[in-house]
Specification:
about 300 residues; alpha/beta; 7-stranded mixed beta sheet; 9 helices; 15 strands
Amino acid sequence: MIRNFFKNSNKIAFIDEKFGKVSYSKLKKETENISKLIQSNSVALLISDNKYEFVKGYLGFLKKNKIICILLDISLSNEFYKKIFVTYKPNYIFCPKSKNHLFNDCQRKIVISNYNILRSKFSHDKKLNFKNFLLIPTSGTTHSPKLVRLSEVNLRDNIKKIVDYLKINKKNNTTITTMPLGYSYGLSILHTHLYAGAKIILNNKSIFEKDFWNLIKKNKVNSLNGVPEFYEYLKKINFEKRIEKSIKYLTQAGGKINEETLSYFGKICKKNNIKFIVMYGQTEASPRMTYLKWRDFFTKFK
């Protein structure tokens, strides 16, 4: 799977507020350097945010043979991190410096800008099932997220099908992060665009900030992706007045969106020749499973 993320060496992979433009060739080199620091036959706990330091570290861990990654979002509680640490006994923790204090017993520290790779005292000798390529939590709507086990085959198959349907490609696709990368839907956006050789704007700003819309305009973003709440907020801030000509499609998943909001976006998208693609998924399916054809979406709002 990871090999397919580096096919387009001369193209820009990311635009990050701190690091600027990052090419696929630079991403590959830095990912390989991180991978060399990690021992095989390991379990790694990764704490994510929407920054380039995290992305290159995440890909570095995924690239290593015989390693199981547990991905948790930075918004989760310290108690939950500690629970996972005690339960799964990871050999490595990849986390922002602000989380170092949670893992005081770790022996070694490798600094990657504002992130650190910590090495625990847990043994590498335990028997591991490496079909468990990536463990990610459910959305946690019950306030007690469970970890879902995904194989590399699961992820690769799901990624390829989404790329094929949405026709994501390196020539004319640029997206922006609107969800945490520690959330399965946000992670799917990352995976699919890297697989296609497209461009991703790494963003931590909200849609209520002027800088968010400036990023869309400056970088000619082609797609927006979000859960129902995201579209409710877009409606409240009068999305119709903020649409850039570069926007070609919107995707929505993560729950049912109400009919009034669907109608609002149906009319706007039809008027501006934008595809609105309603999708359904589960973290267990890594994560987007089905979609409503965009032409069928418009039949609801004649």
